[in-house]
Amino acid sequence: MDTIWAPWRMAYIETANKPCECIFCCLPEEQKDVENLILYRGERAFIMMNNFPYNPGHLMVAPFQHTADMYALDDATLLETSHLVRFAVRALRETMQPHGFNLGVNLGRVAGAGVLDHIHWHIVPRWDGDTNFMPVIADTKVLPESLQATFLKLKENIAELGKP
Fold first, then answer.
1. Does the predicted model carry a pTM greater than 0.85?
2. CA angle, corner 34, sides to 13 and 107, nearest 5?
3. Structural domain count of the chain
4. Domain holding 130: CATH number?
5. Looking at the domain assignment, is residue 112 inside a domain?
């Protein structure tokens, strides 16, 4: 049997039983941005790191408003969300120098939405050769840097960039 050492998973396991209906509502309310990987708060939306990233630097942008319906967002919220997606791309580009990005929204379970009731945008940085045999053969994703290290780099760069 192979063993993969992943001590950072214990924090998730220990908090997995906490009652939280929606991570995009509960985590911002806690006002623990470093612990919850929230990088930036706007007036109507925020940027946070994905705790289970596809690639290093995988970010999400979500409105504070709890809805799964794009049409329920007013124009000001939709505009700020779009600005934050663009700002997240800029921060990732300057901080991590990816070769490209995947941007998207998963609407509904069949589209791959992990959180069904709260719309959010994914920003996934991509590098030439970032897909290798590990996910295909071993069903394992290798992340070369801890979430906290990536968070600190991005947080510093976002502070330097200023407002979106």
1. no
2. 70
3. 1
4. 3.30.428.10
5. yes
